[in-house]
Amino acid sequence: VEEGHNEEARELVSPLHPADIADLLELTPSEQRGEVAAALGDLVGAEVLSELNDYVRDDLIDALAPEQIAEFAGELDTDDAVAIIEDMDSEDQQAVLDALAPEDRAAIESALSYPEESAGRLMQRDLIAVPEHMSVGQVIDYLRDNSDLTSDFWEIFVVDEAHKPIGTCQLSWVLTCPRGIAISDLMKREQTLIPVDMDQEEVALRFQKYALISAAVVDGSGRLVGMITVDDILHIVQEEAGEDVLRLSGAGDGDINQPILMTVRTRLSWLIVNLGTAIFAASVVGFFQETIAKYVVLAVLMPIVSGMGGNAGTQTMAVAVRALATNQLTSSNTRRNILREFRIALANGSVLGCLIGVAVGLIYQNHDLGIVIAMAMLFNNLVAGLAGILVPLTLEKAGVDPAVSSAVFVTTLTDVMGFFSFLGLATLWGL
Amino acid sequence: VEEGHNEEARELVSPLHPADIADLLELTPSEQRGEVAAALGDLVGAEVLSELNDYVRDDLIDALAPEQIAEFAGELDTDDAVAIIEDMDSEDQQAVLDALAPEDRAAIESALSYPEESAGRLMQRDLIAVPEHMSVGQVIDYLRDNSDLTSDFWEIFVVDEAHKPIGTCQLSWVLTCPRGIAISDLMKREQTLIPVDMDQEEVALRFQKYALISAAVVDGSGRLVGMITVDDILHIVQEEAGEDVLRLSGAGDGDINQPILMTVRTRLSWLIVNLGTAIFAASVVGFFQETIAKYVVLAVLMPIVSGMGGNAGTQTMAVAVRALATNQLTSSNTRRNILREFRIALANGSVLGCLIGVAVGLIYQNHDLGIVIAMAMLFNNLVAGLAGILVPLTLEKAGVDPAVSSAVFVTTLTDVMGFFSFLGLATLWGL
């Protein structure tokens, strides 16, 4: 598309929504991205930047001067500006902050002072807060008369003299009521207040649970310091749930836009850990070389036992990791759910054990071999079921993200126990 | 908690938000759930029902009379009522519909006429639509004077004479403008219209991409028939992304609240498919029994090659499935991304091949064995990388959900090719 016809490209792109321009840039091969962005000129503005995939944005931002980034950041809401600036290294970050207008700088610096992925980073400072003695009419007049207020809000927060939120009022309620009604009679007093240091995953769960559109963020002393709106939460829910898929598989946080070298590094380090555990599992097989030498069929069948354990363990683990991430699995139902997984494993293991036992017994005309593989299959399914739930629970308790490291423990356990139970039983049985 | 002290339980629970009461019921063991719900009586109302996990709700609803369900459904928005009714079997559904007030019945019946998981099921019919000639003041008066209008809305839709939406107006814009301004000067003409038969996953992607709070739903002729609000979308994003984790692992759609028999059935059918492919992979090993009998160490090492291929394939597959689900992987960048995965596999395979080759060569003091396993490892990594992206792409093209069935194809391929390449090379090499 881009072979000198810059003018035409600009004409084609200009009617698009910033999110669509961002998509277009993401689809452009990374070598040509800088060129395309340069050709589009000011069409690639602040809003396009804030819609871009993290990796693609880093790519483009590296090419920009701090002053230009500062200009973009000044146009955006605090939360979007912070999202752009927080990933830069500290020197570049300082250069951008220095180039910002004082009030923007103060807002962004205070947001950056909160921990990453906390409510403080997500919130915006521009919000509408009114005292409780106002009437509906006074609120409307206040909004009409103060043109410097934000015009992007969905709810009005009612605060007391100490600036602590005491109620929330949907705009639709304000609009459907006569001017004379007091705002304090209209507002909803039950509110979901978000502490400024709450983790964004927890914030997202609150939004989902209580179907919130916006929520007040309060500091340690309970004063209103900002608000979070649901459109930012939608991104987080999508990201966090998607992260679990990637992390469970050992692909880290990498999507298809991640620079290839970083992808290789992330995935390789995970694969090397797995290589270590695979060698460990293989060494278990090494103990039984004599048995295998006597009866080579064991080598043919042993991957079935270990592999099926891995499959069953992965099922349980995925359910447990999701249940932990969505707060469904709590201390009050842990024991019940461990028992539940044990019973499922018992049922599945029995059926699979019978199936493989009968099949092997018939194919190799050897009942003993059938019995041994059936027992090993049942045993390894029980290991898989228990490991699938206990490993994520233990990691969560230890403060480690269960999505990141559960898989390596579970599959190592099912591999080792699969080989050990099958080959060990075969040796004991004298096959 | 519940041993006759029903009054006290009611007192404890009554100040809670419906979503919290729903959580409480979910945490209650399923045997006691009916009892607890009965003890709480009318505290378990329509809103609590609509917040409940699907499986838990089915449990409770089975115990209710159609008239009672109809009463609950009447209190809810169309979309929430539909969510409750759509999972019932058709006889019970009809009984509930018959017991509904005529206008509620018409709304719910028309929602049920749209396909499951489509925009038509998600939307609510109560919305605010105004003609474009109105001024801000007239809109406010219209809202104040018509008390039968919904008071739950975030945007006003502006429609032409044919009831086609021509613009959207945030309530905050209405509130911050003088009464005299024409609504048509205030509204935003660029809108994201949702066709009534659009799949909910696609709807969720639009909401996320354009940061929507609510959106107009239009029928085939472009007329406004309903609206979807972001709070319903949040649930869908959470569900759909979580589903991918569960489906990739073969756990189906089951969470920890699914009845245990259903869980066993879902997981077992997946495990039986895997048992078939595991037996198939094992039969490949069977071809090389003679080679293994001569050199048993091959049996010890072969699971390393197949297992590492499985790990690498799972990484690529997870990234590809997420990229497909979020529309990042499209026809325009497919070739580039296949090439990308090939290069990553080449890099990872080379490193892993060298590591295992040197280790095996040293441990077993056998250079040939080291070279064979290194080559097999590289080859199987390439198979894994290509299968990890090509399998999901092919399934998506064939109209099958790649999250459901990718894993079985990818791991079968990496198992079979792992065994085949390692044992085959060893045979050729004359080990």
CATH level-1 class of the largest domain in chain A: Mainly Alpha
Describe the sheet with the most strands of chain A.
3 strands, mixed
Query: Into which percent range does the helicity of residues of chain A fall?
Result: 55-70%
Number of strands of chain A: 6
Secondary-structure-derived class of chain A:
mainly alpha
How many DSSP H or I helices of chain A?
21
The rounded Rg of chain A comes to 29 Å
Spatial order of strands in the largest sheet of chain A: 1-2-3
Task: Give a summary of the structure in a few sentences.
Two copies of one chain form a homodimer. Chain A has helices spanning 6-13, 18-27, 30-40, 46-51, 54-61, 66-75, 78-85, 90-99, 102-112, 119-122, 136-145, 171-176, 183-186, 200-209, 230-248, 260-287, 289-294, 297-325, 334-363, 367-397, 402-429, and strands at residues 129-131, 155-159, 165-170, 194-195, 214-218, 224-229. By secondary structure, chain A is mainly alpha-helical.
Characterise the protein shown here.
The structure is a homodimer of 431-residue chains. With 431 residues, the first copy, chain A, is mainly alpha-helical. Chain A folds into 3 domains: 6-115, Alpha Horseshoe (MgtE N-terminal fold), CATH 1.25.60; 129-229, CBS-domain (Roll); 259-429, Tetracycline Repressor, domain 2 (Orthogonal Bundle). Chain A is built from 21 helices and 6 strands. Chain A is elongated, with a radius of gyration of 29 Å. At the A-B interface, helix 2, helix 11, helix 12, helix 14 and helix 15 of A face helix 2, helix 11, helix 12, helix 14 and helix 15 of B.
